[in-house]
Design goal:
Elements lengths: L1 H21 L5 E5 L6 H17 L3 E5 L6 H8 L7 E6 H10 L11 E17 L7 H9 L6 E4 L5 H13 L4 E4 L3 H10 L4 E5 H10 L2 E6 L25 E9 L4 H15 L2 H9 L3 E5 L1 H21 L6
Parallel strand pairs: 1-2, 1-3, 5-6, 5-7
Antiparallel strand pairs: 3-9, 4-7, 4-8, 4-9, 4-10
Helix pairs in contact: 1-9, 2-8, 2-9, 4-11
């Protein structure tokens, strides 16, 4: 019996050592659940480039948009638990979808495990440049004066931007039609074209259009103003003290990945996140550099469920 236990222990140790020593032997794929061009894609590509250099193997971006990120997340859940498939998990896919979607083809908690947190991303309320409002109160007055005539967009039904729009409608006491898109980039294009008048977006994807004057910023959803757009006030300081939220970007992988492989992924991801060029670029994009290891991210991720359940309930967002 003792020899059997020793042999088993040696076998496990050898497998772990082999996994750590040889991983990765081929390219990795990083599934991004939204289309190219949006803030999620921008940050994912920034990180993948650094990780490719450090790992010595390409980290290939695969954009799998649709259903507020659920399509790509479902595909990641089917991957082999070998560490070669990573998921660029955001608050929508990691927390909100599991709350608002009645039926999922995967278990959102049991099928995934955290690797590392990348950054927290302030959200911003933006409007078409022809909207006759420059402040939140002006927008609310205009929206109330045009019931049933206006539409706002989001990156998908049930996502952060959709919920933010519904919360704003409830707090502001107005009605507006929701138009879901397959990501923030197509929503932004339609807003600039006048098909919708307002949307919430991650600040990362909105800095360019705001600074160029193609859209107008009304307010950010954080407690404090964002350094990259210092002249844009918060919604809190404009009269909505309870309107606070942010998105976040992280890396997850399939549950069941061997500990040495997970450890390598964690260390290489954190190395990429903390690279000076990445930190500088995140600040330029309006992100808040917020690295967390796997254990810290696991605690933070699970704590987010209570906050978003309350937000979803207060906005009367229906379960799907």
């Amino acid at each position: 019996m003792r020899r059997t236990l020793i042999a088993l222990a040696l076998s496990v140790f050898s497998a772990a050592a082999l996994a750590q020593g040889s991983f990765p032997e081929r390219p990795l794929r990083l599934i991004v659940t939204f289309p190219p061009g949006g803030s999620t894609d921008i940050v994912a590509r920034l990180l993948a480039g650094r990780m490719s250099e450090s790992l010595g193997k390409p980290v290939v971006i695969e954009n799998k948009p649709g259903a507020a990120g659920n399509i790509g997340t479902a595909e990641a859940a089917k991957a082999a638990p070998d560490g070669y498939t990573l998921l660029f998990h955001i608050v929508t896919t990691a927390v909100i979808n599991p709350i608002v979607l009645k039926e999922l083809s995967y278990d959102p908690v049991k099928d995934f495990q955290p690797v590392a947190m990348i950054a927290k991303i302030p959200n911003i309320m933006i409007v078409n440049k022809d909207v006759p409002a420059r402040t939140l109160q002006e927008f609310l007055a205009w929206a109330k004066a045009n019931p049933g005539k206006l539409a706002y967009g989001s990156s998908g039904t049930g996502g952060v931007m959709h919920i933010s729009g519904e919360v704003l409608k409830k707090m502001g006491g107005f009605e507006m039609t929701h138009v879901p898109y397959k990501g923030s980039a197509p929503a932004m294009n339609d807003m600039m074209g006048g098909q919708i008048v307002m949307m919430f977006d991650n600040i990362t994807g909105s800095i360019g259009p705001v600074k160029s004057g193609r859209v107008r910023a009304i307010g950010v959803t954080t407690d404090q103003r964002v350094a990259v757009l210092p002249d844009v006030p918060t919604l809190v300081e404009q009269g909505l003290p309870e309107f606070r939220n942010s998105s976040w970007f992280s890396i997850f992988t399939r549950s069941g990945v061997l500990a040495p492989v997970l450890s390598r992924l964690e260390s290489e991801t954190l190395k990429a996140i903390n690279h000076p060029d990445v930190k500088t670029k995140l600040v330029e994009l309006g992100a808040i550099h917020s690295p967390m290891n796997a254990a810290e991210l696991d605690r933070f991720w699970k704590s987010e469920f209570d906050y978003w359940r309350n937000a979803i309930r207060s906005a009367n967002v229906p379960l799907q």
